[in-house]
Design a protein that fits this description.
Layout (H helix, E strand, L loop, with lengths): L3 E8 L8 H15 L3 H4 L2 E8 L3 E10 L19 H13 L6 E8 L11 H14 L2 E8 L3 H8 L9 E4 L4 H16 L16 E2 L1 H8 L3 H10 L6 E4 L2 E5 H11 L6
Parallel strand pairs: 1-2, 1-4, 4-5, 5-6
Antiparallel strand pairs: 2-3, 7-9, 8-9
Helix pairs in contact: 1-6, 3-4, 7-8
């Protein structure tokens, strides 16, 4: 089985303060999801946060997923500005050091645009990310909290992750978002692939809304209303206007709605 290192970098700037607990709960949901699978349980995980004053602060360092403790409010508190460029380079440095692994997955979450890096530019980040991706065993994932992740990258001049490796999510739905990230992480860790540019898309067996609607017997309009009301199957948003459903989530939702008439 291929060995895996996972790095998670969390925006801990002032704009995240109102969603501090939601972020903590989301990350802990991610950890719970990884612990559900034999392969991902054995991965080594590093979890760090960033802001413009403290820089990149490590909360968990290369711990086996199966034994890592949940993140708490003592670990994650929010203040200051967004030094995203410096922090992405800092995360890569953390993952380069320490134990060797066959593959590395770097997950970056932010809710805002770069405004405070002092050491690195977008070119520094892009060059380093491209170097790692060319090595063939690094996967980069970019999460936008209340932010169009793909457009935000483009606006900053960043190329941290290809479009199918980005996801935009509503902060109020952090738990669902991190469940989706855990599922996609398990898919990669459990595969024979060293890396992927289809973290949320091709490799994850996703359905378009029309296909998901047909699978549960409703119209796409009704399914859209269900998303708005948060009553339908779980879904993910690889982009601001893109919605996808995992087949397993659709099937789980159908089973939950099944009424047994025999006894």
């Amino acid at each position: 089985m291929l060995s895996t290192k996972i790095g998670v970098l969390l925006d801990a700037t002032g704009s995240m303060a109102h969603d501090r607990q939601r972020t903590i709960d989301g990350v802990n949901e991610y950890l719970r999801g990884l612990k559900e699978d034999d392969a991902s349980r054995e991965a080594l995980i590093t979890i760090a946060k960033f802001d413009s004053v403290l820089g990149t602060v490590v909360m968990r360092r290369e711990e086996a997923v199966e034994g890592v403790a949940p993140i708490t409010q003592d670990d994650y508190y929010c203040n200051n500005a967004t030094n995203l460029f410096d922090s992405v380079v800092g995360l890569i440095g953390l993952l380069e050091r320490g134990a060797q692994a066959d593959r590395t997955i770097a997950v970056v979450m932010t809710d805002g645009l770069e405004n405070a890096s002092r050491e690195c530019t977008f070119q520094t980040v892009n060059d380093l990310v491209e170097e790692k991706r060319k090595a063939g065993n690094w996967t980069f994932v970019f999460l936008g909290a209340d932010l169009d992740a793909w457009t935000a990258q483009d606006g900053m001049g960043l190329k941290v992750a290809p479009q199918a490796n980005t996801m935009s999510y509503d902060k109020a739905q952090s738990g669902r978002a991190y469940t989706a990230v855990a599922s996609a992480t398990r898919d990669l860790v459990g595969s024979a692939s060293l890396s992927t540019d289809h973290f949320f898309d091709g490799a994850a067996d996703l359905l378009k809304p029309a296909d998901a609607a047909a699978a549960i017997g409703v119209s796409t309009r009704t399914l859209a209303k269900m998303r708005h009301r948060r009553t339908g199957p779980d879904y993910i948003k690889p982009g601001h206007r893109t919605v996808r459903y995992r087949k397993r989530d659709v099937e789980d939702w159908k089973r939950a709605k099944t009424i047994t008439t025999t006894g």
